[in-house]
Amino acid sequence: MKQKPQETGFKKEIGLFGGMSVICGIMIGSGIFYLGSYVLQRSGYSLGLALICWLVGGLVSLLGGLCFAELGASDPKAGGQLVYLSKAYHPVLGFMYGFTQWILASSGSIAAIAVAIPTALVDFIPGLTQLHIKLIAIALIVLLTLFNLRGVKGASNLQTVFMVAKLLPIFIIMIGALALGNHSPDLTPVPAAAADGSPVTAGSLFGMIAFATVASLWAYEGWTNLNAVAEEIKNVKRNLPLAIILGIGGVAIFYALFNYSLLRVIPLDEAKSMIESGSLYLGTTVAERLFGVAGKVIVLIGMLLAMFNCLNGMVLAFSRIYYAMSAEKIFFKKLGTLNRNGVPAASLFSQMIISIILVCLRNLDQLTSLVVFCGMLFNCLAVTAVFVYRRKYPDLERPYKVWLYPVSVVITVILFVGLMVNNLLEDPVTALTGLIVPVVGIFFYIYFRKKYGEEEKEDA
């Protein structure tokens, strides 16, 4: 008789603050220094409207997070979203999600951040070539993979340390701008003109808010990832929902306050000229004006710490998805085992190899952009899973329930559908091409189901 797969043996080492560090660590990256320019531009250079869009983006993310909080607290399994899609709908849908993450989305995100870290050093280290950048990126992926193999406690502690460390330089810039800035920006949420220069109407104003909110959502990306490590969270029924609510809510307030502080130093007209000329890093300019040459160093340190923190969080969280696929008997059996430290070593190694391969590819941005649409589709289905779970599993313990159910869930689904329609209209070819990866996953699912089915017959 063949040996049965190893039983789950995760160690519960992630506390409340550790959970917040995972979700906030992945959300707050280098984008905080430049994404505000896109939101301001799309808001018709109205700071008041831009701040509303930042808060609306936070609200959309929080509504989605509340749905994940209910699912995670009632069904705290490793893999998070994959588990919800499999149990609410069908295992093939969960596999399509996990396969896309493994081949492209999650591994591609790890590769992109790993490349971005040495790229930020180009202006400071003369002679840093593309080969050097790729080698450093590969070294970072290998280093963090090996560190994560030592156990989730060390990885969680590292996440917490770098979460605090990266906020220090950002807070220095924000507090300095609030205290030393001598401009009082107009917060009236009315833009002078639409993006195309035409007068603002009620319809164009609504479209402007939606367009700018989409830009802000880029900065909130990552709020779904804490659920992937649910089995490793202490007192998960309390700490997972609390970490999601405090994490997303705190980040929303932080983003709004940071972007307001920048306009305390840079006049709005000057900010507009900078953005129109392609100078998007308003945070860097503010730091240099406040602290001179040291300001540029402060920004660099903040960016490097933020990206490293984000990279470690992704290496930690994403590997649990592939473990869950194997545990569901729809993926490579080896990926469903844990090492003596209670971490999915084989999943970490497979993730590392694919990420390194993607680092070596040239068009990484084009590859990752292909999965944006299906990523939103999977998120929307996971949110809708709250309805399905309540119908299919009425006796399931729910220590946390979504606020204002079912209205809040319906609103969240509508918002996600709106974003998908917007993405489909803006770039239909890329959106539909991105569906190729999960569709290919169906054939792999059929293969693995057949393989495991034959093995179970032999064991019987």
From TrEMBL:
Q: Which UniProt keywords apply?
A: Membrane, Transmembrane, Transmembrane helix
This protein's record includes keyword Acetylation: no
Report the GO molecular function annotations: L-amino acid transmembrane transporter activity
**Where in the cell does this protein reside?**
Membrane
Q: Which residues form the signal peptide?
A: none
GO CC entries: membrane
Q: What is its main location?
A: membrane
Q: How does it sit in the membrane?
A: Multi-pass membrane protein
Which Pfam families does this UniProt record tie to the protein?
AA_permease_2
- Which InterPro entries does the UniProt record give? AA/rel_permease1, AminoAcid_Transporter
Q: What is this protein called?
A: Amino acid permease
Record the organism: Mordavella massiliensis
